Amino acid sequence: MAAKLPDPTVDLHWGGYVGAVHETFHENAVAHADRPCVTETKSQSSPTRTFTYRQVDEASNTIANHLHEAGITNGDVVMIFAYRSVELVCAFMGTLAAASVPSTVVPSTVADDVPASRRAELTTPVYLEVSQPKAIISIGKAVDENGPLAPMVQKYMDEKLSIKTQIPNLRLDDAGRLTGGERDGRDIFARVEGKKSSPPDVLVGPDSIATLGFTSGSEGKPKAVLGRHFGLTRFFPWMASRFDLSSGSVFACLSGIAHDPIQRDIMTPLWLGARLLIPAIEDIQHERLSEWMNRWSPTVTHLTPAMGQILVGGATTKFPSLRHVFFVGDILTTRDCRSLRQLGASCNIVNMAVSYFEIPSAAEDPTALDELGDTIPAGWGMEDVQLIIVSQKDNTKMCGVGEVGEVYVRSSGMAEGYLGDAEKTKAKFVENWFVDNAKWVEADKAGQRGEPWRRHYRGPRDRLYRTGDLGQYLPSGAVRVSGRIDSQVKIRGFRIELNEIDANLSGSPLVRDCKTLVRRDRNEEPTLVSYVVPEVAEWTRWLAGEDHDDVEDKGVEMGSSVVYLKRFRRMQAEVRDHLRTRLPAHSVPSIYIMLQKLPLNPNGKVDAPNLPFPDAAQMVEDASDEDLKNWEALTETEKTIASQWSTLIPGLNAKTVKPESNFFDCGGHSLLAQQLLLVVRKHFGTDITIPVLYENPTLRGLSTQVDGLRSGRAVTVDRSSQAAYSKSLDHLVGTLDAAYQGADPDALGPSSGATFFLTGATGFLGAYLVKDILDRDNTKLIAHIRGAKDLAFAKERLARSLKGYGLWRDAWADRIACVLGDLSKPRLGLDDASWKRVADTADVVVHNAAHVHWIARYEQMMRSNVLSTIDAMKLCNEGRAKLFAFVSSTSTLDTDHYVQLSQEQTATGRGAVLEADDMQGSRVGLATGYGQTKWVSEQLIREAGRRGLRGAVVRPGYILGSRHSGVSNTDDFLVRFWKGCVQLGARPLIVNSVNAVPVDHVARVVTAAALNPLPGVHVVHVTAHPRLRMNEFLSALGYYGYNVPEVDYDEWKMQLERFVSAGSVEKDQEQSALMPLFHMAMSNLPLSTRAPELDDRNAVTVLRADADRWTGVDDSAGEGITREDIGRYLRFLAETKFIPWPTGRGRELPPIAADIVKAQAEWGVGGRGGAA
């Protein structure tokens, strides 16, 4: 049977207006006031929140009445600084109910690598200039993450725009109360609070403008597309009928909020009277999104193919409740659909724009994809929408089945056109030349019924939209798009003008010529590729100015082009950065191919089809003979893994990989590491974890781990790591002495003196412990030193460490003795003579040393951290009776149990986590091997306390620099956090409290607890008074002039990942300060840095006793970190060149002593060195 092709002369029901979406929404709210409307699911910073139709309607009406009373009227644009939230829904509906036009701008999606405030300055005025809004709405959460509008933006609005009203801080609280920010001491909505039950009395019609969306344009200026109310609602009844959508449907809000599909996400469920689920931003990522879908059970969602990849990529969790996925915004592949059908067997897939192509669920038709080829067709036009394909040579002739032609869209619901660009509108929205429009005008006049909305109706306009696509009719009558005519493309839902990219790229003095195309990479993903001909003379001058050497590179012939693989790698980073300051992030190409010249066709135009494919940027030189010989010597596992590396890492030739080659040195990074582990699992059937890869990053090391797992040797250990430490405790308790001799703290004092045995003396805290111990009268010290060749060298090393921190006193020389040891060996690595010497002379043992590693497993650190603790206690039980102090860590509390316990106890007024807590809440659940070793050690010490040992477990959190000198530990996570933020030019929004205390005070608490212990063994918490929150801690950078605007954590994390993984090609800068702790920063810092509130009454007790018996100074009030302290730390870090000096406006960094800086330069310390 012949295909039924569309007839471009039939009536498309030009007057079939079904009303405005906000009107239907209000009717739904009146009819079903208490029905759930919008649910924000639980996030890291807020609980699940559900709002009824009444609450959302009242909030929308409040916004609408405010806008109306401010003079906002039909057609006025309202710019929304957006965030995925219930407030966005209210802002959309409130703007529409005021007869105005909502448009969204999302600074966090405009230019990922530019700090938030800078992004607003660079991009927002452009959108404001194009849209000319009359009102501004800033959603509160957008303000929280990006800060208030940049001064440059506010200035532009004040001077260039006619803003009638500005809602600066839109928030809907848990009870449904809407606020907009204060003005003159009152909330901005105070005047209209009484009008929330109804929208203002305004009228819209079919041709009233309902939406304004942006598409990229030429010369760096976006175009604004005006959508009509007719088209906004025209297809809802058809969709409801065609796809069985109803008020019982549950929609997931997953579209990018700067994309057109967000309108469908929000307005479809509200028109239907259905429910909308809004996920937390941290749930919109690989694997977690599928888990979220399973947990919340939405039945409908709109996705771009890229978001579909996030949903299914690497995921195993199924979501059986999902019934319909509407894909929009880009080419949809059958591969994407197959992956989705595996997890959502009941899911019908619809490739949808103004057309639709439906793929039945796997449960209904398992073979539905088999005959579709690589991509899903565009399909058929929706109700009263036609896809008209005409001959490129003669547009009066329609194409038949199989003929390729230019695709036009014919619809009664077509957009109005481009705002402020009549010429472009005329070129793209053309009159239908197949029929006389007067035919529809006469019919419309005959059918008028005096509808009020006709005041906003221009009558029938039979128009065709020129898509710029090439396509063909299939035998079924469906349309398959085969390419583009013009240079406008869509990638990941964003419209992009390729000419705009080239115009900006040509503005760089380093570029002679260029051409940007969309090409498919090796993974068949659409990718922006810029082909660049360098301006060699200018490049040579640039290299000289930057003190870089040129690289010899004659180029490689590829077809009709000569490609430079090495010489211009630095230029790639330069031109990319050039574009990043001029274009939105989605318009910045990811691949740059440097050519000797652009190839031309016989017509003198760029021969685009013959330009090299993206793989040219990944080519490397052939392996040498020596490489080939080494390759043959590899095991089969090594060859396979090397090949996997080369598949993932651009430009890596597998046969150049050697056994000692490091995955990360070869170009791997955290995201590729995750992909690698997935590939390894699929090929070998083994589960290698990220920590294992970080511990074994070489080809031989990783291959050995894989072979071990395949043989079953390491599987049990790896899978039981969470339980291994608690089982280890049960065994180790049996190795403790049956009884311990108890020491009497009253026997020690300034008059009688005390001799301390201290481990970890050369580390940061260790140095301050030495000071605190030796500042007391009649004290002596035996320091445990690792890695020294003899006692003289050990003492010299200790003195050098103390001098580096500015702590050394010549008078201490005779009071210090050293012993050589190693925590990783039995009896602390002490020989018999040293062991006996300490046993016979020491009065106090302070076990401060530990192997600190945030990835190593418990088993790898047990000897150094746990068995050394048992040996230190055994030392207390030999020779002279001794007091014992153990420096633990709040890492022992890093489980959900203690965070929740802290919240519960604080909320009920019962205080924070008690020092007397038995810590059984951490018997399982500690994620790091380091924290596990500290927990086991604590339990062993407390058991020894029950057997007679006298002492304390001191549990500090973050240990920051000296309050007096500013000297800081550059290995500390928080210090590296500062540097990482300075390097990135951004700081993440994290609101957790930070338990950070100056090192001087921590040392004081440890010594006080050692000399003045409570009976038995008690825990002594070191907690900050007061505590800063992380955002306060990081904002001090800005206070002192560092340009580090606050951004959303996930955005910051992406910037961090790009920074540390870019390498020299993209970033000619030092490695990020956070790289050594990269896995922590890249996992979930807002979650992993949660710190429970701590009771510290034991700390108060020992400090008061210490004042009475030893120091005469009462430090029991505790200490925290102040902004002044941070200033001193930053001054120290800048003076020692760990971070640059601030260049922005801010307070001057406080002064520190010049001899401190000199000491650092001379003695060069500052790291942890805790296991020394």
UniProtKB/TrEMBL annotation:
Q: What EC number(s) are associated with this protein in UniProt?
A: 1.2.1.31, 1.2.1.95
Cofactor(s) demanded: pantetheine 4'-phosphate
One BP term from GO:
lysine biosynthetic process via aminoadipic acid
Q: Which InterPro entries match?
A: ACP-like_sf, AMP-bd_C_sf, AMP-binding_CS, AMP-dep_synth/lig_dom, ANL_N_sf, FAR_NAD-bd, Lys2, NAD(P)-bd_dom_sf
Q: Which family does it belong to?
A: Belongs to the ATP-dependent AMP-binding enzyme family.
Instruction: Give the catalytic activity.
Output: (S)-2-amino-6-oxohexanoate + NADP(+) + H2O = L-2-aminoadipate + NADPH + 2 H(+); (S)-2-amino-6-oxohexanoate + AMP + diphosphate + NADP(+) = L-2-aminoadipate + ATP + NADPH + H(+); (S)-2-amino-6-oxohexanoate + NAD(+) + H2O = L-2-aminoadipate + NADH + 2 H(+)
Function summary: Catalyzes the activation of alpha-aminoadipate by ATP-dependent adenylation and the reduction of activated alpha-aminoadipate by NADPH. The activated alpha-aminoadipate is bound to the phosphopantheinyl group of the enzyme itself before it is reduced to (S)-2-amino-6-oxohexanoate.
Does the keyword section mention NADP? yes
Keyword field: Amino-acid biosynthesis, Ligase, Lysine biosynthesis, NADP, Oxidoreductase, Phosphopantetheine, Phosphoprotein
From which residue to which does any coiled coil extend?
none
Q: Which domain of life is it from?
A: Eukaryota
Q: Which GO terms describe its molecular function?
A: L-aminoadipate-semialdehyde dehydrogenase [NAD(P)+] activity; ligase activity
Say yes or no: keyword Ligase present.
yes
Q: What class of enzyme is it?
A: oxidoreductase
Carrier domain mapped to chain residues: 632-710
Q: What is the name listed in the Swiss-Prot or TrEMBL entry for this protein? A: Alpha-aminoadipate reductase
What metabolic or biological pathway is this protein involved in?
A: Amino-acid biosynthesis; L-lysine biosynthesis via AAA pathway; L-lysine from L-alpha-aminoadipate (fungal route): step 1/3
